[in-house]
TrEMBL record:
The keyword Signal applies. PANTHER family: MAJOR OUTER MEMBRANE PROTEIN P.IA, PROTEIN YDDL-RELATED. One of its GO terms (cellular component) is cell outer membrane. Residues 1-20 form the signal peptide. GO terms for biological process: monoatomic ion transmembrane transport. It is found in: Cell outer membrane. It comes from Pandoraea oxalativorans. Its main location: membrane. Homotrimer. This is Porin domain-containing protein. Keywords: Cell outer membrane, Ion transport, Membrane, Porin, Signal, Transmembrane, Transmembrane beta strand, Transport. Residues 9-321 form the Porin domain. It is a multi-pass membrane protein. Transmembrane segments: none annotated.
Amino acid sequence: MKRKVWMAMALTLAAGGVKADGLQIYGILDNSVEYLSNAGVGANGSKQSVVRASNGSQVQNRFGFKGSEDLGGGLKAIMQLESGFNLNNGVLQQGGRMFGRQAYVGLQNEWGALTVGRQKNLIYDAFLELDPLGYYSYALPALDAQFAGKADNSIKYAGNFNGFKVAGLFSTGYDATIANGGQVAGEWRVGKEYSVSVGYANGPLNASLVYDQQQGTAIATQGKTTQRVAAGASYAIGNFKPYVGYQWYLSNVPGVAARNELYFAGLQYRPVTEVILSGAIFYNNITSTNQHPYLLAANAAYLLSKRTQLFAEVGFSRNQNGSNLGVAGYGMSIVPGSNQLGVAVGLSHYF
C-alpha cells in the first residue's frame, strides 16, 4: 500500500513538472513518422525504402530526477538520474540501463561542480550548444556517436568563471558493458578515458575546444588509443546564428581504427519567437579508407506552447567508395555505398 502511495505522489509531481524539497521530476516525449530511401535490400536484390514510426527524431525520449540540497556556506549537494527509452515500444535504451543517460551525485559551489557516476562526456557538454541542428537525429551525433557519448565510472569537474569555462573528466572504465566495467585489477589502462575542455560563452559568442582520449577496453588493447580534438563556435547576429566546427579523430584500437577529419558549418534563424529554422553541412574526410561522405540537413520547429513543439527535418547523405553514412548515422538503416534521403515529421512534449 505504501509503495502505491509513493508512486501516486511521483506521478502527480511529474504531471506538473514541479519541484518538491529540491527534487525536480522532468521528461521529454518525442515521436515522428519518417521516410528513408535505400534503407534495405529486398529479396530480389533491389534497394527498398521504408516509412516508419521513429523514436526521438528531434530529441531523445527521457524522464529523470534532478535535485539539490543547500549545505550552507555556498556549498550544495547535487544529483541527477535520467533514463532513456523508446516511446514506440517502451524499451529502455543505452543498453537497457535503468538510468543510462545520466546517474551521478556531487558537490557544487562558486568554484564549480565535482560529480561522480555515469555522465555526459565533455564533447557532449560542449557541442550540444554548438551543433547547428540542435542534436536532431540528422545532425552532428550522426557523424560520430561520441558527440552524444557518456562515460561510466567517471569523475568530472566543470567550472564557469564569468563566461570562461573549464572542465576535466576521468573515467576508470568508460564502458561498463565489458567485463569488470573496464576496471581490471592490475591492468590500469583498460577502458580509461581522459578529457579536458576550455571554452567561452558570454553575450553572442559561444566557443569550445575539447580533447578526449579513450584506451582500449581489453587487456590486449589497453595500450591502443582513440583520440579526438574538437573545436566549434557560434555567434548570434540578430535573429541569425552561424556555426562552424572541426573534429580530428585518430584511433589504432581494433574495430574502430581510423583516421578522419570532420568539418561542419550551419545557420540557425528565428524569424519569430515561435519558429526555429536551421540548416547545415557535415563533411567527413576519412583518410584511412579514402572515403569522403557528407550530410546535408535542415530542420524546422514550431512552438505550439512552452512545452509542445511540431517539427520536421530533412536530410541527404552522399556516399562513395563503400562508405555507409545514413542520415541518422553510419550503418543506420542504409545500404552501404548508397546515398540516402530522409524526411521526418513529428511532435515533442516537455514536462
